[in-house]
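Example record for the data management plan.
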Amino acid sequence: MGSSEVYTGAGASATLIPEADFEVSMQLGTVQILNAGGNSAANKLGLAYKGSANNSHDRTSLSWSADATGGSNHATNRLPTNIYQGCFAEITRYENEVTFTELGIHVIKSNAAYSITFDRELGDATTNSHSFTLKILGFGTPTFTPSVLADKHNLLADNWLGLVNTITPPSIDAEMKQLNLALGGTRNFGFQYKGAESYGSASIDVSLNNGSWLYYALGKKTFTATQQTNSGNTPINLSLSQEDGKVYYDNTNKTFHRRESGTLSPPKIFGKADSDMLKLSADSKIDYTFTESEGDSLPSFALEFTNEKGNIADADYYQNATDENLFSRIFTGCQVNTFTMNFEEGQELKASIDAVTRRGYDSNQNYIPKRKVRTPSSLFNFNDTDANLPFMFSDGTVQAFGQSLARVKSGTLTINNNITPQRYIGNYDRSIVSAHLPAQRTYEVSLNLQITDRLIFDELRGADEVTLGDIVLTFDKNATADTDKITMTLKDYIVQSVDIPFPDDKGMIDVAVTLSARTLHECKYHGKWIIIG
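Corresponding structural encoding:
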């Protein structure tokens, strides 16, 4: 133990790290292609074979140079060691500005602070002047951002999780392999070792003050937002104003980006012009539309859990192997397996999120947790009081069977993605899950209400789907003002069960109803919460 002082709950924190495609060549090197002559260092992309002399090039590794035009600053652009191990990457090799080869998908074997190594060679020995573009695909790829302390490294880990009531990090279990060897002489095992690591679910219980978790549960988003303009009402973009701490957005690809430490995180798409990156108005309310992802993946995020001891000076706020004042763990590739939204009389709207995880990463020496943001009110997405307040029971309406249900006492909406972890053969690490594949998606609405007629019971006995109207759940913080609002509409539903008890106290009868829907018709969120990536 490096210190006699123990970690306490007072020093515990949890934050979210967005995961998105990482255009390495856009953030750590220049975007210029080789000139027709071939290998002028000033014209390279900044990603080239690792090594300096022809006979020492490592053709399985790419590195970036601080000396290349637009290249990275090695004092701040340092990747956490092996944070992207096991991730998939798309690579393009350039012979010159007009000749290139798309190398397809590669697996990252490892990464160092200034280089990335792949599972096979990216070229042959005929030339050493290749340049490369590299995009690491989003699953399990926590968003990198330049360090806030020289010669240290961090991620974009200062994102507020919202009004968290309880949070439980995934458990880590290693399969035990114990063998009786042929040569015995004892009743004890002769040999033991650990097999693959497996992970429990991350469990998050929040008082819901925004609709972002619906995006992670459903998989796709589009949005409209207000662009900032200057005094002459001219729209502002990244080519006109590059300000740290501001948000820019790609209106074509529908992604948000933060400018921190002089760069966009996540970086813009390769080939995208600065003038295409619009500056978000500070007071903009964003209109999101969430839709279902029908592919083999869902959006992912990472969770950073940090414990710290006592009062640490800002200059010393990084993980140090000698004194152990800080201890951070990062769980990457988290995806929402089950999302349950709970509404109950007299209570705020709550949500329970059950998320599978790809990997448990122990942040190494010189890692800076939370980008050194140490107060909750300074975390990204911490807004004004109105935006931070949760939705209340009084903000909600429930419609079904062609009418508003006025006597709903409580209810839940459950979205289940039925995710199955997968491990593929590859040269990375036994602790990493290769992919999460979602299976059958299900929607279930459970209501506890008081009824005035027998309609619901009749629908239970019927053989067909309900035709009287959709299920519509609406939560609006203030119906007369421009405040946060969630609307979700489900179609094609049946009454799965109806429980009508015989009361002992002869009071009102509370009926439990379960509705199963098979189609999401619409899901919208209006508010200030910015979903990065």
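Summary line stored alongside the record: The longest strand covers residues 326-344.
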